[in-house]
């Protein structure tokens, strides 16, 4: 394990060309078993990109995207002029940018927030970094892909524009919030932590079965920051602090820690002791904002919310199909034969989204945006309940049994109806 960590640290510090040159010079000495280890050690997609370079093949990057029609560019620019509105259609924006929504959105937000000028960022390095991040999302994932990252980033921007936060956030806070949102699920394999543990995946061993995916997202982001050289002009202590704070934000998205953050948030609001002039309190609120942005789909308009719901369930079902193929116990919510989309969404809203956004609404005192989100949330939950009734009419499984699958899936305990219920991580 120590050798593995050492190897990963070396890889994260080396640029990709250096790594390729080193690999080429030793190609004759590398045995097939070593190559298999290399395949495992590198992240899911980074190995693929590196191996293409080793074979002399051109790699795809946003810099080589097909030129868009001017009409499409004009429509995308028009959408960006309203990027702070809650009905922003990220699916349409992704089509208008030819699948380049994350890079386009981040470049725009960094510009309007004056982060490029404030941190004296090199545009070539910024574009390279964002392209690496976008490429490292798995486009074949129905849910955990670059469009989800762009959607979370747009939501995070909306939350950082909330008056109570916007008045106190520093440029560094804005930089961290947007960067963490864009990279929070990078290189997500489309399966959850329990699956990685059950299959004894090397990432589960590396991170000792604790925040496995979130730790991988963070470490992958750090590797790409260093490879791109985006922060190389900053003093080492500052760039290292940025890396650590990004880690703290991304790790906060681990849903098994939901109750931990919710209890602390509620205590701050009850005691009225949040002081956003303190860096630690601002950082905590960025963690809360990112957690909200990550699960905000049920707070969107129905048409957008429904699409996300169907996508996340499709990803669950794919994991279930894989578990069935491997003769493994099918994880909660992953059996397409018994777990309906309405039942999954009702549980998700009831146990995860609603408790968090109720406290967020208190924090915003409440703002017009939080009122709109809660209104959408209640309407969407009612709609899913009606759809569940139609689905359940032909099923024998009680509604409570469907909800109990959420209880077994989440990795934290929360008190519902006076009883402690254990959730397995989604």
From TrEMBL:
Metal-binding found in the keyword field: yes
Q: Which residues bind AMP?
A: 144-148, 185, 294, 345
Q: Binding positions for Zn(2+) 2? A: 185
Q: What InterPro entries does UniProt report for this protein, alphabetically?
A: HD/PDEase_dom (IPR003607), PDEase (IPR023088), PDEase_catalytic_dom (IPR002073), PDEase_catalytic_dom_sf (IPR036971), PDEase_CS (IPR023174)
Per the database record, which ranges form the PDEase domain? 68-391
Q: Which cofactor does it need?
A: a divalent metal cation
Note the SUPFAM superfamilies from the entry.
Answer: HD-domain/PDEase-like
Identify the EC number(s): 3.1.4.-
Residues spanning the signal sequence: 1-22
> Which Pfam family would be a valid example here?
PDEase_I
Under catalytic activity, the entry for this protein gives:
3',5'-cyclic AMP + H2O = AMP + H(+)
Q: What class of enzyme is it?
A: hydrolase
| GO BP terms, alphabetized | signal transduction
Keyword list (alphabetical) reads: cAMP, Hydrolase, Metal-binding, Signal
Question: What does the UniProt cofactor note say?
Answer: Binds 2 divalent metal cations per subunit. Site 1 may preferentially bind zinc ions, while site 2 has a preference for magnesium and/or manganese ions.
Q: Which residues form the active site?
A: 144 (proton donor)
- Where on this chain does Zn(2+) 1 bind? 148, 184-185, 294
Q: Which GO terms describe its molecular function?
A: 3',5'-cyclic-AMP phosphodiesterase activity; metal ion binding
Biological or metabolic pathway of the protein? Purine metabolism; 3',5'-cyclic AMP degradation; AMP from 3',5'-cyclic AMP: step 1/1
Protein family according to the UniProt entry: Belongs to the cyclic nucleotide phosphodiesterase family. PDE7 subfamily.
| Annotated protein name in UniProt | Phosphodiesterase
Q: Which organism is it from?
A: Nothobranchius furzeri (Turquoise killifish)
Q: What is the primary gene name for this protein?
A: PDE7B
